[in-house]
Amino acid sequence: MSQVIILDQEGTRLSPCTPERAERLLQAGRAAVVCREPLTIRLTYAVELPPAPQECRPGGIGQGKRLLLHICCGPCATYPVRALRAEGYAVTGHWYNPNIHPYSEHVKRREALDAFAEKVQLPLIEDGYEMPVFFRAVANQERFRERCPICYRLRLARTATRARAEGYDAFTTTLLISPYQDQAAIRRIGEALAAEVGVAFHFENFRRGWAERGKLTREYGLYAQSYCGCLYSEWEATQQRGRKGAG
């Protein structure tokens, strides 16, 4: 995949981005073209660079390794990106969430991730929106906890395949931070996929950073969703709020 050179307002060179992300920045008026060959864009604002590399622990478990991080949303990426970098990993984010419904919600969450990635210099690989794939996968298995492992595998399989194709040393997911997700199932599926594709699955209990996630979400001004992502979880969350209101 070709990458676009990206500069901030002050001319500082940032991590490259995909052509799709560059196009969104241009259309939103948040960037302008500097040159076409190679394609280079300049942001209309300055970017605060992340903390210096010395925050990484010398000899950390990820030292010298490239890790592909499946990201379910911007808020859930905040703590894991920081933690993985502290362990020495060179982290790239992977956006693939065909479960998110409706499409407007998918766009909101992707834009929140884009904003976070710019602020912390996180390279991103973005795959398209494939909602029919999700609905076909969970057909007749839509109940809570029944559909969820299917959804985990659908998303993690794409990340694992990407990791193998592009030479990453490991992959993992921000889903591991949420107390609302089945962490044991995520680990089991991740490790099974690792055996299938030949790329290590990095399991880490990111839940220890759940409170920090909330703090960082506010600091970065990120959009925070009110339900997991799929049509069924939106429906369940609405029903639950209705019952609380009736009480």
Commentary on this structure:
The structure is a single chain. With 247 residues, the chain is an alpha/beta fold. The protein has 2 domains: 5-43; 57-232, 3-Layer(aba) Sandwich (Rossmann fold), CATH 3.40.50.620. Helix content is 44%, strand content 14%. The protein is built from 8 helices and 8 strands; from the N terminus they run βαβββαβαβααβαβαα. Strands 6-5-4-7-8 form a 5-stranded parallel beta sheet, sandwiched between helices. β4 (66-71), α2 (74-86) and β5 (90-95) form a beta-alpha-beta unit. α2 runs parallel beside α3, α2 crosses α7 (210-220) and α5 (147-165) runs parallel beside α6. The longest helix has 19 residues, at 147-165. The radius of gyration is 18 Å and the shape is globular. The model has no long low-confidence stretch (mean pLDDT 91).
Computed structural class: alpha/beta
SS element count, helices: 8
Neighbour order of strands in the largest sheet: 6-5-4-7-8
Q: End-to-end distance, in Å?
A: 53 Å
Query: How many individual β-strands?
Result: 8
The H-and-E topology, N to C, reads as EHEEEHEHEHHEHEHH
CATH topology of the largest domain: Rossmann fold
Low-confidence stretches: none
What's the architecture of the largest domain, going by CATH? 3-Layer(aba) Sandwich
Number of domains: 2
Major sheet details: 5 strands, parallel
Features:
alpha/beta, globular, 8 helices, 5-stranded parallel sheet, 2 domains, 3-stranded mixed sheet, 247 residues, Rossmann fold
Topology diagram in text:
Blueprint: E1 5-7, H1 19-27, E2 31-36, E3 39-43, E4 66-71, H2 74-86, E5 90-95, H3 103-120, E6 124-126, H4 131-138, H5 147-165, E7 170-173, H6 183-197, E8 200-201, H7 210-220, H8 231-246
Parallel strand pairs: 1-3, 4-5, 4-7, 5-6, 7-8
Antiparallel strand pairs: 2-3
